[in-house]
Amino acid sequence: MKQYNVTVVTTTMNFNVPNSEVVAMRGLVPLHAPLQQRLPVFDGVLDLVRCGRAVNRWIPLAAMEFLLYDVDRVLRSGGYLWIDHFFSKGADLSKVYGPLIGKLGYKKVKWAVANKTDSSGLKNGEVYLTALLQKPLFRSGL
Predict the structure, then answer these.
(1) Is the dihedral of CA 62, 39, 74, 31 positive or negative?
(2) CA 104, CA 134: separation in Å to the nearest integer?
């Protein structure tokens, strides 16, 4: 990414393998940050934040809300939040997580929901959400 003058910061976890080192060798900046801590980035400086599979229904709702509002803090106006393979129960997505994400007031560029087809997903009625959301350029009333 350095050749394109792009800096990518990604969260990593080392589970008996050197993930941070592999990420760094590929030109990305590895970051260790717990969900209960603000992202160590200035306000309004990122163009894209991707939340991958680790951000899912197992995260306590208060921590999820904190994470979303912290992502909102670091995204620039017009920036994108990419929620990738978020899984939850289908009913929880429509009643809990969808409205929580909707509180941000972002434009839904893409919002795709599909059934989680592994044994746990079929048994528990779980779904995947992949969404690309754009932060508004201006917010009225703020």
Answers:
(1) negative
(2) 10
pTM: 0.84
pLDDT tens digits for 106-115? 999 999 999 9
The tokens 């959400």 sit on which residue? 129
Q: Greatest CA span in the chain, whole angstroms?
A: 49
Q: In what order do the strands lie in the sheet with 75-89?
A: 46-51, 75-89, 126-134, 107-115
Q: Say if residues 49 and 68 touch (Cβ distance below 8 Å).
A: no
Integer Cα distance of 95 and 109 in angstroms = 21
